[in-house]
Amino acid sequence: MLRRTVRSALNSRCRRVVVVVGHDAKDVRGVLDDFHVDFVLNPAFEEGLSSSVRTGVLAAANSAAVVMCLGDMPLVTTDVINQLIAAYDPTDSAAVCQPTYGGKRGNPVLWGSAHFPALRQLRGDEGGRALLMQHSEAVVYVDVGDPGVLLDLDSPDDFMKLRTKAP
Question: How far is CA 30 from CA 2, 33, 35, 52, in A?
């Protein structure tokens, strides 16, 4: 599942792919050992998702923007990531691009660098959802025409349900 997510990022227009590792870092590195990615260790992974966001943003501090992909969303495609990048206006560092499908907001989200300080302040087991609401005027919604942006697999049962639906 993780290989599929990372492959989509690698095949996209992203200039660099950073994989934040924490729990089972050695195993995750092993799964991706043949991929050209930069690994960054999140020593505070037990604090929850926000610690991974902070770690990733720090690793990308010199970037104009970051696309935050979640490892448990294997149906996010290279095309979706590229649509977010194409929708981003590099002259507007405050822009945020979020994919939608059927009127529902999904992931991954592209964050302009103006949001990096706020992303580094996140705490607990949350990503950027609260920031998206706080900065709703900056969000560009991108209808990607792909339901994969709504599906995350949080448990083995979720994965099995997906497998049984596959053709």
Answer: 11, 5, 10, 19
Structural domain boundaries in the chain: 2-165
- Interatomic CA distance for residues 26 and 4, integer angstroms: 18
- pTM (2 decimals)? 0.90
Q: Does domain 2-165 have CATH number 1.10.630.10?
A: no
122 touches 50 (CB < 8 A): yes
Alpha-carbon dihedral 25, 13, 162, 124, rounded to 10 degrees: 50
Write the pLDDT tens digit of every residue in 4-41.
999 999 999 999 999 999 989 999 999 999 999 999 99
